[in-house]
Amino acid sequence: MNTVFSFPEGFLWGTATAAHQVEGNNVNSDTWVMEHLNHSLYLEPSGDAIDHYHRFGEDIRLLAELGFNSYRFSIEWARVEPERDFISQAMLDHYKRMLETCQEYGLTPMVTLHHFTSPRWLICDGGWGSLETAERFGDYAGLVMREMGDMIGVVCTINEANIPSMVKMIWQRMGMGDDGGEREEFNHMATAEAAEFFGVSIEHFKPFMLSTEDQDREVILNAHRQATFACKMERPDVPVGITLALSDLQADEGGETVRDEYRHEMQDIYLDAARQNGDDFIGVQTYTRSRFGSQGMLPVPDGAAITQMGYENYPLALEGTIRYAAEKTGLPVYVTENGIGTSLDSDRLEYYRVALQCVVDCMRDGIDVRGYYAWSAFDNYEWNSGYEKTFGIIGVDRTTQKRKVKTSGFWLGDVAKANQYPID
Ligand code: BGC
Predict the structure, then answer these.
(1) For position 167, what pLDDT does the model report?
(2) Cα–Cα distance between 46 and 52 in angstroms, integer?
(3) What is the maximal distance between C-alpha atoms in the chain?
(4) Which helix (H) or strand (E) holds 131?
(5) How many angstroms does the Cα of residue 21 sit away from the middle of ligand 1?
(6) Nearest atom, ligand 1, residue 380 CA
(7) pLDDT band for position 219 (50/70/90)?
(8) With a 6 A CB cut-off, is 375 part of the ligand 1 pocket?
(9) How far apart are CA 111 and CA 310, in angstroms?
C-alpha cells in the first residue's frame, strides 16, 4: 500500500547556489584572477555567469513559485571587502536587498559566508595559510551578522571546509590526472604563474582550494571557530554550522582499514571539530560514493552509470552520509547540497527521487534532518569545468539569460510544497 511521509512543519526545502557561480563579474576575487591567467586551471572564465547579481529578484520569485520555502546562497567576501579594510556599503545593501526579497517571497535564507572564493588581497596576504585569515574571516562574519543578521535564517560559515584535503583526488576525478604527468606539470606551471601574479612564493600561494597542508587545515577550522563566535556575539539566536563534502565511503571486504584511514583524514577530523565547536548543525553535501579495497580506492564498478563529472551516479550515497554525520557529531543535519551533473533531466529526477527516499528513511529512524537543498537552483559555473556541466533544476540560456524550469524542478517544488513524500 502506498502511503506518505509527512515532513515536520518548518522543514526547509531549498536549492543552493554560490555567489561566484551565478552572480557574474566577481572581479575582486582570487578565482576571477586565476581564470584570466595565461595558463589557467579553469577551462573558461566565469564572465557574466548567469547574472544573478542583477536578476536575483526574478530568480528568487521563481524559486518561491516552484514551491520552495528556503534559498541557500553565499554573501561574497570579495564584494563586501574588495580591498583590505575597505567595506563596501553598496555591496552590503545589495545583499540586504536579496535577503529582503527572500522575506517578501516567504523563503528562509540560508547564508554561506565562504564558498570557495576569497578576496584577492587575502591571497596576497598569505590566504588560508595565514593565521590572520581566521581573524579576518571572523571579523567579516561579525560584520555580516551585525548588518543583516536579523534577516538570516541559518548560517553556513565555510562551504566544504574539507575540500582542500580532497583536492588532488578531485582534480583526478575531473579527468585532469592519469595522463603521464602532463596535467600535473600543467597544474604546477599554472600554480606557479598564479603565485607570481599574487606576489607570493608558490609555498605561500594559498587560495582556499589549494590550502592542502595540515597547518592550512588549522587555519580553516580556526576561521570557522572565529566566525561562529562572531555570529553568536551578534545574533545568538541564528543557527551556525559548517558544511562538508561527504562522499559515502564504502569498504569492500578487506578494504575497511584503508577506508577508515581515508575517512579519518577527509571527514572525521572535520566532523569532530564541528562537534567540539558546539555547532548548531552539520551541513551534509553528498554527490556520490567511493569504494575501497585493501589497496586503496576502487574504480567505479563496471557498467555503472557515470555523471558528467566522471563519478558514479549513486544517489543512495545520501543515506550513508546523513547517518554517518549524525552519528559522529550528534548534531541535527541539513542536507546543504545534493544533486547530479547530467544533461538528462530524467536522470536528475530519478536521482532526487532516490535521494529523498534516503532522507525519509533516515528520518523514520529518528535522525534529526531539518532541511534539504538541491544543488543547484540553476545551471551555473562549475568552477574548473566551466559551463559544460549542468546541475540545475532550472536551465539558463546564457546568451539571453532566460531561465527555463526543468521537469525535475517542477517535481521537487511540488514535493516541497506538499511537505510530504510517498513511501512504500
Ligand atoms: C560545491 C559546489 C559545486 C558542486 C558540484 C560542491 O562541491 O559546493 O560549488 O558546484 O559541488 O560539483
Answers:
(1) 86
(2) 12
(3) 66
(4) helix 131-148
(5) 9
(6) 10
(7) very high
(8) yes
(9) 29
Q: Is 271 in the pocket of ligand 1 (CB under 6 A)?
A: no
The three cell numbers locating residue 50:
548567469
Per-residue model confidence (pLDDT) at position 175: 53
Give the atom of ligand 1 at the shortest distance from the alpha carbon of 245. Answer: 7
Residue 124 grid coordinates: 596576497
Closest CA to ligand 1's atom 10: 382
Position 17, amino acid: T
Q: What's the rounded Cα separation, in Å, for the pair 231 and 155?
A: 8
State the pLDDT at residue 182.
84
Report d(CA 160, CA 349) in Å as an integer. 25
User: In the predicted model, is pLDDT for residue 357 greater than 60?
Assistant: yes
Which residues pair with residue 249 across a beta bridge? 290
Say which of 23, 76, 147, 160 is annotated catalytic.
160
Smallest CA-to-CA distance from 344 within 300, 307, 317, 316 is with: 307
pLDDT in tens, 145-166: 999 999 999 999 999 999 999 9
Please work out whether the CB of residue 160 comes within 6 Å of at least one atom of ligand 1: yes
Mutation test residue for ligand 1: of 337, 385, 390, 393, the one with most atoms within 8 Å of CB:
337
Give yes or no for residue 178 having a pLDDT over 70. Answer: no
Burial of 254 (0-12, 13-18, 19+ CB in 10 A): exposed
Beta bridge mates, 251: 292
Query: Is 160 labeled as catalytic in the residue annotation?
Result: yes
Question: Alpha-carbon distance 128 to 159, whole Å?
Answer: 14
Residue showing cell 582570487: 30
Ligand 1 atom closest to 18 (CA): 9
- Determine the angle formed by the axes of helices 269-276 and 214-234, rounding to 10 degrees: 30
